[in-house]
Design brief:
This protein is mostly helical and 132 residues long. It has five helices and two strands. The protein has two domains: 63 residues, no CATH class; 64 residues, no CATH class. The two termini are 19 Å apart.
Length: 132
């Protein structure tokens, strides 16, 4: 699992900034500038806002498990990937981003590699089965 998560306080502060920003797209929870899903990006210490409203930090938290908001993301996205095929390109990108965040990998969100997509699906499925 990724060892570069920020503390709950830093995460909440970052997300609050995003939610108050003109570039925050509420329907998907993504940024209109970088196109990232902010509930995921804000948890990673090495990430920063493209507008520099919040910066990367060295303040890390080694979680006991997967942060609750990432588990919620897995449970939410599962309905759109449970057949083994993502419902659309946005869902595929979200699945890969979520997998990369949780497992510390670096799969390209635009990949069409069946092996890469299968790895992402299986990783998300393991978490879904554990926390559903």
């Amino acid at each position: 699992m990724n060892k570069f998560f920020v503390s709950d306080k830093v995460y909440k502060d970052r997300l609050d900034i995003c939610k108050g920003c003109d570039y925050y797209f509420r329907p998907t929870g993504s940024c209109k500038v970088c196109l990232c899903f902010m509930s995921i990006k804000a948890r990673i210490s090495l990430m920063e806002c493209p507008q520099k409203y919040w910066l990367k930090t060295k303040e890390l938290e080694q979680p006991e498990g997967i942060p609750e908001e990432l588990i919620e993301e897995v449970l939410t996205i599962w309905k759109d990937i449970k057949t083994g095929i993502a419902k659309n390109q946005g869902v595929k990108k979200r699945m890969i981003t979520l997998f990369n965040t949780i497992y510390g990998s670096n799969y390209d969100t635009g990949t069409s590699c069946s092996t890469c997509l299968s790895d992402c699906f299986k990783g998300i499925k393991r978490i879904y089965e554990k926390y559903r």
